[in-house]
Give the backbone structure.
Amino acid sequence: MKETIYTIPVNDAYDSDCECPLCLLRKKAEDNEIEYYLGPSLMEPDTRIITNKTGFCPDHMAKLNKKVTNRLGLALVIHTHLLDYDKDITDDLTDAAPAKAGLIKGRSNDYKNTLRSLADRIDARTATCPVCEKMNKTIDRYNEVIMHMFSHDDAFKQKFIKAGHCLPHTASLLRTAAAKLSQNDAADFVNALSESNKAQFSELEKDVEWFTLKFDYRNKDKPWGNSKNAIQRAMRFLSTDTGEFNEG
Ligand SMILES: [Zn+2]
Ligand SMILES: [Zn+2]
């Protein structure tokens, strides 16, 4: 396969000792995009036209703020985004206030629709994010490459069988398998996925339960085993590893 730009990172992720290779690939794609938006791209008019409109989602606002490398660049982007947002909604917000009851001539429910549609517009703007958009596109591509490698590269297939995947990435793999794999390949693929999922569930259930039992004074002096970070591992499995579940 010539697309080594995707196959090499996929192989690296499945070679590394991690809880979910797709979480690792997602994190790398996210870091790349954040670096990109804090780098010289900030001063490129094409990028600014986009970020003036979109800003960033709450999660990526927080991550951009943590990267203190380019404070001026971040301030410039936030400033022009504020101007764009202000121009878009402030007048509509002023106009959305209904007339007081008794003075109104139109149907009394009209103002409710106005309030709801303005709220929808604000929510849509909050959720729109070029980092998410590009990262999701990259992850979609990785999912397709994983499908291709699973059915054409036996060495990779063996790595896949041994790997674990968090539940959100299990869902993305299932969706891509439905779109890309033949029925026979899908049979092998889903069997491998379900075996590792079963093992992850039972290990995490056991470890989190032992974590809770350690609070019983009778177990106080018994060894922790693998349970010390069981809550974080379980949360990463349930929700993807966003880098927020530090164990320190
Ligand atoms: Zn994952
Ligand atoms: Zn985002």
